[in-house]
Amino acid sequence: MSLKTMVLMISAASLCACTLGPDFKRPVPTSEVQWLPVEGPRAPSQAVDASLGERWWDSFNDPQLSALIQQAVEQNLDLKVAASRLLQSRATRQVVSGDRYPSVGLSGQYSRARNSAVGLNDPSYEEGHSAFNLWQTDLQTSWEPDFWGGIRREVEAANANVQVSENARRGVLLSVLSETAADYIRLRATQATLAVIRDNLGVSQHSLKLSQMRFDDGVATHLDIAQASAQVAAIEARLPTLEEQQARLINALSLLLGQAPRALQAQLEKSAPVPVSTERLGMGLPSELAQRRPDILQAEAALHEATAMIGVAKADFYPRISLSGSVGFQALQLSNFGSWSSHAFAFGPQFTLPIFEGGRLRGMLKLREAQQQQAAIEYQQTVLKAWHDIDDVMVAYNAEQLRRDRLAEAVSQSQVALDTVQHQYVSGAVDFLNVLTVQATLLSNQEQLVDSSASVSLARVNLYKALGGGWQSMLPVATNGQASKPL
What we know:
Elements: H1 3-15, H2 63-75, H3 77-97, E1 103-113, E2 132-143, H4 150-216, H5 222-256, H6 265-268, H7 294-315, E3 320-331, E4 343-352, H8 360-426, H9 432-467
Antiparallel strand pairs: 1-2, 2-3, 3-4
Helix pairs in contact: 2-4, 3-4, 4-5, 4-7, 4-9, 7-8, 8-9
């Protein structure tokens, strides 16, 4: 059999080769679950048919928030680490893909040597009595036809691993988006609370002056002055804690943007309203969730990778055949180097067949099958957790809106009550304890209203995160198995 015939036979056999192991079938999440908003006489969180907004942060109509999110996407260090891991997985895929093709290498060597007179044959035929020159060069090639699909399965697993890294980066991006928005909302809520405290401090100081005037007129007592002074001091004592919280939130935003502590102090220390979205909340279709949430896509890619690795383990049970060869020149004299008489070549196939591995191959196959089963369970768990996340956040979003509306009414009535009791105190109809009680109630309701308004916005942010929205506008969607480019 000629060499040409042998190469053609091996090439034809490789084209007809099979691929061992199960083929990956994309899991289909249950479609029976639907969005179930809380029902009732006032249920503002009910889902609408509108699609999920990709740039949902713009719905808060806060240019500062949108600018911070853009900076976070460009500068966040966690995102840069995730992008680096994606590059590593792509490089790994490139390494694995190289096994599908022949390898070709060129080597050259010159040496001056002298052999032993009583050792191996002396190529100079001087029986070790003189040194000689040796010039040689070789062009080597080798190729292992993928008869059983083991290499194809390795490439398939590497492609799936790229998707794991790609969706991990999307998950990090989604977290960065939501954390930036959440910290910004908390910052504005803290500043709003500071404003409420300072307003109430002014009211308390006015009450103290009023008590002092009444005491000078002989109408009030030392008790009234002491109570008014204690209230002023108690309200003042709350300011340092809120100011510390404001500085901490500004630093948290600085960290998300990859900047030093206090880098955003001048930019964010001036208070602004708590961001509120007045747009209707579009949640998209439930069937789109598995194509949108990065953790579900990542779990799916991990299942694909584990499935492909079963085929790699099965291919190890079968013979491996490789074809290698070399062609080159070798001569003792440079003048002869390159002539036809100095050429040399070698070609031939080689095969290896596992006969006894002590159970290693079977153990590896069982390991890969168990890993695939685990990946399938983790995928189901991820999908189920996603539904729970959405349902929990929808309940919280609805409840917080109802709470905010009632607190707004409570603040309005508490303000009326304070104005009334102050006039009654001046006229002597009530004692100062009534003023303190009403003012404390107003302060509590105002603080709760600020907290509830912020909680409504935070619940909306959490709902967008649970729905997996936001990363699409910052990263192009992967197509044809190719991951999107780094940020």
